[in-house]
Each structure stands twice: as structure tokens, then as C-alpha cells.
Amino acid sequence: MIAFVRGRVAAVGLTSAVLEVGGVGLELQCTPNTLAELSRGSEATLPTSMVVREDSLTLFGFADEDEKQMFELVQTASGVGPKLAQAMLAVLNPEAIRRAVGSDDVKTLTNVPGIGQKGAQRIILELRDRIGAPGSVSAAMPGQAAVAEWQSQVHGGLVGLGWSGKEADRAVTAVTPTADTMEAPDVAQLLRLALQTLSRA
Question: Which stretches does the entry tag as region Domain III (predicted)?
């Protein structure tokens, strides 16, 4: 997995930016707010999340780690894929999403194109216990952030490969004991183990 990209901004488009890294131009899908902070020719470092499909690998770039983690977390809710997750972050910042979920604010979530009332209610129900209270991001322990990150990456990889959210949840739970024995979670290895678990099932 590619955790971040650092390089010269080669191009900035309406929905993506190209960063030159070691002579290679990497295209990152970004929200308008993130794109607004980039200027062609400048150096930039963007946290990234890779979405794996059978026929493509897509990199999403973010302004900071909080935005990246929120992008990965909201995708653990049923019916939320990478495009809808990015749309949520284009309309609402991570703190606004935490406030909306924590206060059962359906109206705010339905301001996001693609989210209706039932979808907003489902997101609130599924994320309420995991998203954290508003203002809680800075209070998280480093170890907790690392755990959440590998779980989100493995879960996102499985969903990207066609498994359902519930199947991905089961597989992440199954490989958690293995992850706990690692000094630093190896996302690629854990993803392979999760796939093996699902294949056996």
C-alpha cells in the first residue's frame, strides 16, 4: 500500500492532481479543498489511500491524515464506496462528519450528493460507535491510529475486490490476532491472510 506521496506538483485538474515522484507522474484523485492547496511547480506531500479493483488501481490524495482516515472509515458503512466517500469529504470536513454522525444529523449528511435519508440513517447507525466524538482525533493514541489505519486499508482492499462490507468485517476480525503480534502491521500480508480466510469460508 502507498501511505503517502511526496513530489513536485506537475498538474492540477478539476478532480485530480499529478505529482512527479522519481520521474514518474502519479495521478491522485482529490477533493476540491485539497486541490485548492496545490499549485503547479510546488512541492507537496499528500497522505494517500489506494483503492484496488480487478481492472484498476486508484490513488486518492488528502490534505491530512485525518481526512484520509475518515475517507477509509466511512467506506466501512454499507453502500459507501470511494466515490461517495470522496463526495462526503468534498462537502463536509472530517469534524463535520463526526458531528453529524454523533448527533444523528440526517439533514447534514443528505447535503452530500448521492446520500438520501435512508442512506444517511444507515451511515449513522453503522458508524456511530466507531467514528469518535467531535474533537477526538487529537486525543487518539498513536497505537490506536495505527490499528485503525491497517484495518481500514485491509477492509477497503477487500471491498474493492468485490467482497461485501460484512464479509470484510469478518475477515479483518479473523486476522486481528496476527496483526497484534506484529511490531508494525504489514498491510499487504494481512490483506493476503484476509483473502485466504474468505476463500476458505
Answer: 146-201
